[in-house]
Each structure stands twice: as structure tokens, then as C-alpha cells.
């Protein structure tokens, strides 16, 4: 067996199941699950229609490089969204089966077999970053995401001697779990450091199309490269997905784009790995990337949820709407595990302890004392959940809701 398997920790939802063992939730209340970030809004009809129309391709082997029309649609979308002068379909774009597998496998390409390879990642973090680093045999350096830095790492304070150790840096923008957004100035700083210290900058931008201000979308990594005059996107890759943008998590569709010198060996790796997207998924993906109407409507639905639940919860928590994503990062009055267990038992609501998304470094887990609540349920369910959480807080001696 691969010895690196022993270094993997239980996934957060496995820990959550263990936490709830022996707990009987309030039977008078229907369960509301805010624990997992699985979109529940309707997927776009244009994608479903294209999926059905493309089912006749099921007898054909798909290309690892992806259909030309999909890569062209992706290029058109990304060029417009991130104000790029160009994004070549031949060697700067690669469709993938959702960004989860791609974020994992890119570390195998960059770090696998490299002596003393080191991966930098935020803490708390999407757990795939850790698994990817460890299974590539790399060391993992976690960067704390603290409230004073908008729940993103303080990248500016990292020394050049530390950057010298970095082979791959994962950034999540907007962040999961807290929704923090990186400024253009921070992205410029990271791009310059990646060039100077020759590491690969991997931007997980899965939440980039969910943002609070319709007139101020988050800056993308390639967008900032282009503003710096680098249209080759040196040492930079973005990972984009239809899961959150278009409510298509079950289709497993996304893309990687950026530096062709990284895309080409990654394509070769994927040829052997066998990660090819079915042609009918590619047709549906092309339809989804080409349509922006449903994305605007999707953002409006999430804003309506934030607008509805924040007045209910704000008397009990120091919270505001995050600039990106669909999560609430709620500070807990006691331990995050105790809070999650009690709220499940008394109010039949599932939230995820923040400590399960982070790791303790020098005795400090930046996720401790928070729970992540995903506003993915229907509006009325989110409002009901907010009232239940407020009621629980009030029962613990909090302010009136």
C-alpha cells in the first residue's frame, strides 16, 4: 500500500458523523442541513437541454483535451469575465471533471517525485489541498486565515526565505469557508513572488461567480496577470467550476487555464490518468458557460438569503455578509464541536465545526471557535434555520433575537 495513505486525516463529514453518534435530534423539527456546500438552486435549462441532446455521443470516446467548441466557449467566457486580451484554446485551456480532482492531481504533476517539495495552503482550507500535497509526498505549510486579515492568509508577511521553500501555492479566492476575497494588490504580490521564487500559483476560483456586490466581481488571477502585461500567465493556473456558478455539482465539470508550460505536461499526465469528460457533459458545459443570465439570477437568490438571515442572526453573532461565496462563518460562544452537536440535538440543524476544516499549528487551529453554515437550502428553510439558531443562542443567555 502507498505509505502516504497513512498521512491522510478523516474527511470533515466523517468527523461530523462521529460527532453526532448517540445524539437524538429534536423529532418535532424537520432537519435542515447547512453542513455541506451542495447547491440546491435549479440548474440552468440550457445546460440540461444540451445534455439531453448530446446523449447520442455516449458511444464515443471523449478527448482528454476536450471538444474544440467547449474550449472556445470557455475562452470566450474567461476573456470577457476577466478582461483578457486572449486565452488560447490550443494550449492555455484544459477541461476537467470538476475542480476537486484537478486540484488534487495538479500537485502530483508539480510535486510528485520532487525531493523536499513543499506546498503552501490556507488554514482553514478545502481538504483536497492537504490530501493532494501529502499524496504527492510533499511537505505542507499551512498559512493561518485570521479575522484581522479578512479570513485570508497574511501573504505580505511571508519572508523570501519561506517563499524559497515553496513549490506550489494554493489560494482560494473567494475563500472557503469564510468568503474572504483577495485584493488586486495581494494578487500582484503573489504573482511577483511566484516568478521570483519559481513556484506554481494555483488559484481555486470555484466561488468567483458568487459575490455580494454585482458591480464589483472579485479579481481573478489571470486578470491581474494580464493587467501586468503577462498574457502567458507565467507560473499561474486558475481552476474554475460549474458546480457553484451554475448549480451543476453532479455533472463534475470545470476547467484549468493559464501557463501553457504547465498545461501541456498536465495534459500528458491526464492522458495516462484517464480523466476525460463525457462528450454530452462537454456539450452541457459549453451551454452553461455561454449563458450568463442564470448566473446573475443565482447570485440574486443567495443575496436574498443573506439579506433575510443576517438581521435574525446579527444580534447574536458579530457577522456581516462575506464578499464572496455562500457560507456564513459563525463565531461560536463555546467550542465549535459543542455548538454543532448541541444545535443538531436541540434544533435539528447541521452545521460544520470550523476546526474540522483547519489544522492545529503550534497549538492554534484558526478554524476553532467557528462553524460553517452553507446557505444552500431554500430561502424559507434558511430563514427557519436562522430563527432556530437565534433561539438556541437566546436559550444560552444571548440577546433577544
Amino acid at each position: 500500500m502507498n505509505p502516504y495513505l497513512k498521512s491522510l486525516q478523516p474527511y470533515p463529514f466523517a468527523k461530523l458523523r462521529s460527532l453526532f453518534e448517540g445524539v437524538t435530534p429534536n423529532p418535532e423539527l424537520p432537519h435542515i442541513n447547512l453542513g455541506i456546500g451542495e447547491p440546491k438552486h435549479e440548474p440552468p435549462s440550457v445546460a440540461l437541454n444540451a445534455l439531453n441532446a448530446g446523449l447520442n455521443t455516449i458511444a464515443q470516446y471523449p478527448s482528454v483535451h476536450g471538444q474544440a467548441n467547449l474550449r472556445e466557449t470557455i475562452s470566450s467566457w474567461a476573456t470577457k469575465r476577466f478582461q483578457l486580451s486572449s486565452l488560447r484554446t490550443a494550449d492555455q485551456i484544459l477541461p476537467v471533471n470538476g475542480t476537486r480532482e484537478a486540484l488534487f492531481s495538479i500537485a502530483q504533476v508539480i510535486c510528485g517525485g520532487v525531493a523536499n517539495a513543499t506546498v503552501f495552503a490556507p488554514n482553514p482550507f478545502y481538504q483536497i489541498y492537504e490530501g493532494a500535497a501529502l499524496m504527492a509526498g510533499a511537505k505542507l505549510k499551512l498559512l493561518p486565515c485570521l479575522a484581522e486579515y479578512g479570513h485570508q492568509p497574511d501573504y505580505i508577511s511571508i519572508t523570501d526565505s519561506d517563499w524559497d521553500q515553496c513549490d506550489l501555492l494554493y489560494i482560494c479566492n473567494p475563500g472557503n469557508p469564510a468568503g474572504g476575497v483577495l485584493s488586486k494588490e495581494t494578487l500582484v504580490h503573489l504573482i511577483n513572488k511566484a516568478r521570483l521564487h519559481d513556484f506554481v500559483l494555483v488559484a481555486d476560483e470555484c466561488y468567483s461567480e458568487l459575490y455580494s456586490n454585482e458591480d464589483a466581481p472579485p479579481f481573478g488571477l489571470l486578470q491581474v496577470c494580464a493587467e501586468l502585461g503577462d498574457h502567458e500567465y507565467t507560473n499561474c493556473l486558475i481552476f474554475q467550476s460549474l458546480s457553484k456558478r451554475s448549480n451543476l455539482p453532479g455533472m463534475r465539470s470545470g476547467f484549468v487555464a493559464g501557463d501553457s508550460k504547465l498545461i501541456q505536461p498536465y495534459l500528458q499526465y491526464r492522458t495516462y490518468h484517464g480523466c476525460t469528460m463525457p462528450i454530452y457533459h462537454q456539450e452541457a458545459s459549453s451551454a452553461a458557460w455561454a449563458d450568463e443570465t442564470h448566473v446573475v439570477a443565482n447570485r440574486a437568490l443567495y443575496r436574498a438569503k443573506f439579506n433575510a438571515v443576517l438581521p435574525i442572526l446579527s444580534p447574536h453573532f458579530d457577522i456581516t455578509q462575506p464578499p464572496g461565496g455562500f457560507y456564513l462563518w459563525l463565531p461560536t460562544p463555546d467550542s465549535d464541536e459543542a455548538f454543532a452537536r448541541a444545535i443538531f440535538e436541540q434544533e435539528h440543524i447541521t452545521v460544520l465545526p470550523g476546526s474540522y476544516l483547519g489544522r492545529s499549528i503550534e497549538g492554534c487551529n484558526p478554524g476553532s471557535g467557528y462553524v460553517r453554515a452553507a446557505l444552500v437550502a431554500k430561502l424559507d428553510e434558511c430563514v427557519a434555520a436562522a430563527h432556530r439558531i437565534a433561539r438556541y443562542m437566546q436559550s444560552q443567555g444571548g440577546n433577544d433575537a
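The chain is about 40% helix and 15% strand. The first strand starts at residue 32 and ends at 33.
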